[in-house]
């Protein structure tokens, strides 16, 4: 998805000891400073999705996602305690309007969380090609502020025990994208990156 890249200082929220979330404001160019008063970036808003097998936290109108996560409310295990479940997707929605999380077992439930900021401060969502390894590469000059994954296939044993794992979910070493990888060579996953421009020095 293409869109205007946003400065990274507007994307990164800081959780304070009080539990509040703030966003650092980027400095306006010097020529513009005299023409208008400085203003802090709007406070981000945390939105929680419903408890469901596939949960989406949708940002309010006029806002888009800057980061996100999940909380599992039920999880499938075998009688011997073996793990039969996994969070197979934890990623921004492709159009930037929220965050989604999906459980492997259809009876399990998860809640997605989205950190939403004004649309003009939000990063651009970039999705990588599906494969055993996937890289979402930011446009030239942009860096990944965050990212996620969505697995389209997942290895399991006949009794339901999982034989797979998202073994990598990390920024690229040069900061220019997000990389993910599956444990099983036959499984497939897509990487997602939230991309913005670094601050001017």
From TrEMBL:
Region named Disordered:
34-60
Q: Which keywords appear in this protein's UniProt record, sorted alphabetically? A: Signal
Q: Where is the signal peptide?
A: 1-25
Superkingdom of origin = Bacteria
Instruction: Provide the protein name.
Output: Secreted protein
Organism field? Actinomadura meridiana
Species lineage: Bacteria, Bacillati, Actinomycetota, Actinomycetes, Streptosporangiales
């Amino acid at each position: 998805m293409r869109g205007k890249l946003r400065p990274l200082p507007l994307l990164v929220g800081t959780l304070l000891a009080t539990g509040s979330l703030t966003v650092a404001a980027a400095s306006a160019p010097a020529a513009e400073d005299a023409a208008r008063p400085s203003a802090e970036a709007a406070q981000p808003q945390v939105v929680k999705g419903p408890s469901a097998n596939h949960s989406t936290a949708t940002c309010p109108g006029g806002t888009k996602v800057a980061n996100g996560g999940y909380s599992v409310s039920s999880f499938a295990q075998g009688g011997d305690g073996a793990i039969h479940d996994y969070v197979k997707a934890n990623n921004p929605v492709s159009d930037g309007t929220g965050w989604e999380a999906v459980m492997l077992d259809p009876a399990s439930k998860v809640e997605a969380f989205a950190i939403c900021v004004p649309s003009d401060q939000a990063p651009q969502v970039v999705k990588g090609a599906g494969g055993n390894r996937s890289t979402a590469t930011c446009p030239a000059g942009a860096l990944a502020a965050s990212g996620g994954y969505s697995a389209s296939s997942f290895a399991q044993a006949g009794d339901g025990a999982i034989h797979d794992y998202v073994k990598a979910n990390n920024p690229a070493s040069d900061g220019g994208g997000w990389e993910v990888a599956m444990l099983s060579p036959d499984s497939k996953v897509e990487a997602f990156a939230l991309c913005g421009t670094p601050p001017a020095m």
